Amino acid sequence: MPANAPGRTTTFRIGPAAQELTRAAxxxxxxxxxxxxxxxxxxxxxxxxxxxxxxxxxxPILDPTGRLLTVSCGTALHHACxxxxxxxxxxxVEPMPDDGDPDLLAVVRYRGVTxxxxxxxxxxxxxxxxxxxxxxxxxxPVPQEAIDxxxxxxxxxxxxxxxxxxxDLADLAVAAGQANDALLGDPRYRAELASWIRRPGEGHDxxxxxxxxxxxxxxxxxxxxxxxxxxxxVVTRVDVSDxxxxxxxxxxxxxxxHDWLTAGVALSAVLLTATAEHLATSPMSDLMENEVARRTxxxxxxxxxxxxxxxxxxxxxxxxxxxxxxxRPAAEVIEVVADEADxxxxxxx
Length: 349
Ligand SMILES: Cc1cc2nc3c(=O)[nH]c(=O)nc-3n(C[C@H](O)[C@H](O)[C@H](O)COP(=O)(O)O)c2cc1C
Known about the structure:
InterPro entries: Nitroreductase (IPR029479), Nitroreductase-like (IPR000415), Nitroreductase/BluB (IPR050627). This is Nitroreductase domain-containing protein. It comes from Dactylosporangium salmoneum. This protein is 34% helix and 17% strand. It is an alpha+beta fold. The protein folds into two domains: 122 residues, NADH Oxidase; 171 residues, NADH Oxidase, CATH 3.40.109. The chain has a five-stranded mixed sheet with strand order 3-4-2-1-11. The two termini are 27 Å apart. Bound molecules: flavin mononucleotide. Flavin mononucleotide binds next to α2 and β9.
């Protein structure tokens, strides 16, 4: 019988495990997602957090296979795991546990209490601070030690971060150009992109127009939101150079849903580590949304592995963070179904 069935009052007992798992799911609302669709749903039981994809939030034109939806859910999974590890919770993750339910992407099982991880605590602090920063970066190089730490963060997952070198920039620019031309030439894509752009303060999802930045002259163009009719007001100069930006590609061994989830976990590890290192980042998935561009990237990577998502990395040009993209209310994305308390006994006599 459902807990809210008419004529029945139910009380819930939320034990410490469910409380801890709920805290983790709450932190995961901050995770980045494709066009800020936040395509996830959490179900918390007395000892597990179940992460579901929300297929109603898949982008039919931009993401027909659901790859980017799954990558987005992977970032939420990693945010939750960081929070548990930072709180000293022992847990186990089972990815894709049910062949009959492809929307169930992972089960995070509570295993008890352990020592808090200092590395996770550092990343946990980065969760509410991280933003996608599309503005041009400062004309200062990113220290190589910081890049090495990002690569190590990805390596701790089952994916890797392949950094591009200056001799790759031409190929990367070609891939970005191919993606831009193909995507912007498709009126269905432009309409879909436009439908996810929001005026400041409007709604709980989508990309706020004040987080966008002009293309200007960049060695590698980023996704062009202006073609969807969005003006930009973060930076008004067009002489954007971005010349010290670095580019990393999250690469997985395979190209199926399990790999996409892994790519999201790696992406989150890279973004949170970068934030903790005071670097600015913005994900780039347009390169992966067009098969010709993705093939160019695969060739650039020597045909080894599958590029899942790109990341632009740099020194922030200003200490002012970009505006925050909104999030859906927690009650929309987290459902607590922890143990029912014993039903009340009928009065005696
Ligand atoms: C799978 C994925 C793909 C993304 N692709 C792009 C992209 O191509 N261009 C871009 O500017 N931002 C991209 N983003 C960043 C999202 O737009 C951003 O996470 C979202 O708008 C929420 O904003 P926030 O990251 O500042 O919290 C992507 C994020 C994810 C997780």
